[in-house]
Amino acid sequence: MEKKSKNTGCCSGGSCGMPMSGKTVKEIVKEQYSSLVKDEGLKEKAKKKGKSEYTKAIGYKDDELKEIPMDAVEYAFGCGNPLSYAQVKEGDIVLDLGSGAGIDVLLASKKVGRKGKVIGIDMTQEMIEKARANAERLGADNIEFCQGEIENIPRENESVDWIISNCVINLSPDKKKVFSEAFRVLKPGGKMLISDIVTEDLPEEIKNSLMAWVGCVAGAMREKDYLDTIKKAGFKNVRVVGKFTFEADAVKGMMEDCSTGIPDSLNEIYNKYKDEINGKVASIKVFAEKPIG
Question: Which domain range does residue 41 map to?
């Protein structure tokens, strides 16, 4: 069932306010992602904005959050809980694309147990270091974090049972390659559960804004195109298993929560198109399988 959300949050690695001169989207995202880890005031901002309440609103349960370091929650920038839909079981090998501070990896590690393993991939070394520290605090020995890009996953062919991801793929400039790589590393019969942002038709001024891209809006695909891209990578049984739609203020909040604030130019765009944005941005949970033969 589709729900409307007034809560504000941010996608993992999103950004706003970064200078655009001569830099690629990926470089800008990486810089901002790194700066978020170094932001001494982020925890205090998270508390003031009710980060824990937002995290629960997008699908995380109280008892889950109590089991992991709060640092992993305060530095989480997702738009849903992929594990609330993924049937991860004991002994599984799970890969998290864009693992950030490790919230989903830490939760998955409890599901797979000592016989299983969870691998987190992130392109930012600073976030990898934070995630490793959170795993050490948890005392988990079935976790591995490594630096890498989701367009070129540093894992062997057919090596994982599950792939999860939380609001990261929308930031990639080559989503086709991401899903091709995901298909490659999954075992035959392996499964994928993604939480991500999709949009309906947005004003051209927004779609052409790099700042809106790194803020998880301009780079997001239409839902049908997103699903078609997954199918073309070879996946079967591709379906949306959960969805909620953001109101306009929540879309703006995705930008604000990832930096010190929206730059004036982007703020003007959002104010100009507030009515057109309302209800046009959504978080979906997508399930897919790799055929056995």
Answer: 2-289
